[in-house]
User: What shape does this take?
Amino acid sequence: ARPLARVDQVRPPGAHNVTNALAAAGLALAVGVDPAAVAAGLAAFEPGGHRNVPVAQRAGVRYVDDSKATNPHAALASLLAYPRVVWVAGGQLKGAEVDDLVRAVRDRLHFAEILIATSRDRPARSGSMSMTRTVHTRSPDSLSTAGVRAFVTSL
Assistant: This one.
């Protein structure tokens, strides 16, 4: 058996994406796709928008948009893909608690910024972790890839 790809070459990074790549490769091989074609497909794969997509690199720091990680389970998988992160999360929590998530990745977090969009004039709520900070925003643009790029450029 010939290797199809090295784990460190799977994009986007993270154990959950290695699992996805293995499942796709296994299915392709099971239906008779040539192993060389499977290897080429894995090498050429580019994630869709907002799925661990690099948006900028500045001062040796890589900024990644994974805004499709919209629940604590998905965010945990994404955060575990990197050894050290500055996490900028946004949107509405919709009842989700992030304290356990922050505790689970605490050793990886350099800083966590929780941006919560409020609806109408209801106050935003955040977890009780001392390393998190809530910023009230009504602009969804500030939570977009373009907003992240603008933030990085302003550094």
Observations:
- The mean pLDDT is 75.
- The radius of gyration is 18 Å.
